[in-house]
Write a structure and sequence with these properties.
There is one protein chain. 45% of the residues lie in helices and 28% in strands. It has 2 helices and 3 strands, in the order αββαβ. The protein has a 3-stranded mixed β-sheet with strand order 1-2-3. The longest helix has 18 residues. It is globular and about 30 Å long.
């Protein structure tokens, strides 16, 4: 499975958990080792957004795909 396909699959698995809190996540692209996402809904203005990205998502992605260097939240 290509890295990009695996990323998309993982995002789909994460989505229901964010939806439970009124948020959502959209895949934008994968480039040079970075995953570009867009957090929406309640996640947009959440004070824990950086924690969600750096502590939750990044560690989860790197566990499956060690080549990922980081996650970048693209502003709306």
């Amino acid at each position: 499975m290509k890295t990009e396909d695996k990323i998309k699959e993982m995002i789909e698995n994460i989505r229901p958990y964010l939806n439970m809190d009124g948020g959502d996540i959209t895949y934008v692209k994968y480039e040079d080792g970075y995953v570009y996402i867009k957090l929406t809904g309640n996640c947009t203005n959440c004070l824990l957004q950086d924690n969600t990205i750096n502590d939750g998502l990044l560690s989860m992605f790197q566990e499956e795909l060690p080549e990922i260097k980081g996650i970048i939240n693209v502003p709306l």
